[in-house]
Design brief:
alpha/beta; 12 helices; 9 strands; binds iron/sulfur cluster; metal-binding
Length: 387
């Protein structure tokens, strides 16, 4: 049983023989995909407050310094993204701010919100209003919290990172593998298309990596909700000096991910942190969300590649490149058209389906990307950044 799993009642089936088999997998054991995909997004760092203090993280700010975007600021950013042809509003922030963040709670209260998740729901509504599909990563959530946010998100995510207990999750307030597995399970229970992943190089062993991938597979096999698994290497930064894993390490881990996961689950590497072109033949078929307009606030030292650079990565790897929505095709409403015509949809709720079907310039952009004929162009705004 993984650390913290008992507390959350999470039973994940990871067979020791399967772990051994996965540990023997290398790049020669997997096939190169025919194409790689990406999603064009804007990054919306709603707050930099987080109750945890993971040692590799430069995202969070301590109480007194943490920021909280107003909804007007959110609207400005997502509108800029929509103008630049984006389809995704990426709301990523840490776990719910604890009591130490008095200023954040006071501000939310003044604006009339119960907590940061209540506020996130309002921010998602702004994104939908401006023509983007929200994808939220607000840390660990209960099933009830996920159910509340589900109608306003095309997909959501949380990084498992690892099933091991590592010093990198240091301090009195530390997230546990059991808590993360519980969130991934809860997403499956509410039927939310989900993104998760592992973080490589934070003190985990090779066996931990194999177990983490098989734990994700086990949860996906129960619910069918995992759309992609990110294999992300740690990078040195101003708060830590973790060594960046070698390309040989990453090639082996990516191969293990491809071998462990069913074909419908994409394997993603972030092209601003990894040598993506050298990993495609190990089974990478997605390059994640790439922003033509906003910085990567989680890894601010590592700039997003411009869209043309993604095309170069695909060229170098000998595969084609195509744009996708933040929710993968198999979760879209029906087969009648790019986003369907019927009222029923197993995975997406009313506001998302309505956004996809609205007869306006944004709906047309979303549908053309869903059909696979969205313009893969590098807009003038490429490389424009927001401070
Ligand atoms: S990695 Fe996530 S949970 Fe950990 S401190 Fe950073 S924002 Fe918080």
């Amino acid at each position: 049983m993984f650390p913290g799993a008992d507390e959350y009642g999470v039973e994940v089936d990871v067979d020791a023989d399967e772990v051994d088999r996965l540990l023997s997998v290398g790049p020669d054991d997997v096939e190169k995909p025919q194409s790689v995909s990406f999603s064009r997004n804007v990054f919306v760092p709603l707050t930099t407050a987080c109750r945890y203090t993971c040692t590799y993280c430069t995202y969070y700010d301590v109480p007194g310094q943490a920021t909280l975007m107003s909804l007007d600021e959110v609207r400005d950013v997502v509108r800029m993204g929509a103008d630049a042809g984006c389809t995704e509003a990426l709301f990523t922030f840490g776990d719910e701010p604890d009591d130490r963040y008095t200023e954040i709670h006071r501000q939310l209260d003044e604006w009339g919100y119960d907590d940061i998740l209540d506020y996130l729901a309002a921010a998602c509504e702004v994104a939908l209003d401006e023509g983007l599909l929200p994808h939220s990563n607000p840390g660990d959530l209960t099933r009830e919290q996920l159910a509340d946010l589900a109608p306003l998100n095309a997909s959501m995510g949380v990084m498992l990172e690892t099933t091991a207990d590592v010093d990198a999750h240091a301090g009195n307030r530390r997230k546990t593998p059991g808590q993360r597995l519980n969130t991934i399970r809860a997403a499956g229970e509410v039927g939310m298309p989900f993104t998760t992943g592992i973080l490589v190089g934070i003190g985990e062993s090779w066996r931990d990596r194999a177990e983490s991938l098989l734990a994700i597979r086990d949860l996906h096999e129960r619910y069918g909700h995992v759309q992609e698994v990110i294999v992300q290497n740690v990078v040195p930064n101003e708060r830590s000096d973790f060594e960046r894993p070698s390309i040989e390490t990453m090639r082996r881990v990516v191969s293990m991910a491809r071998a462990a996961l069913p074909a419908e689950v994409s394997v993603q590497v972030p092209p601003n942190l990894s040598e993506a072109a050298s990993l495609v033949d190990c089974g990478v078929d997605d390059l994640g969300g790439v922003s033509p307009v906003t910085d990567d606030y989680v890894n601010p030292d590592y700039a997003w590649p411009a869209l043309q650079e993604l095309a170069d990565i695909a060229d170098e790897a000998g595969v084609s490149l195509h744009e996708r929505l933040p929710v993968y095709e198999r979760f879209l409403p029906s087969e009648d058209s790019a986003v369907g015509t019927g009222d029923e949809c197993e995975w997406l709720r009313g506001p998302i389906v309505e956004r996809l079907r609205t007869d306006d310039v944004h709906g047309e952009r979303l549908r053309s990307v869903a059909r696979g004929d969205g313009p893969l162009s590098v807009p003038d705004q490429a490389n424009r950044t927001q401070s």
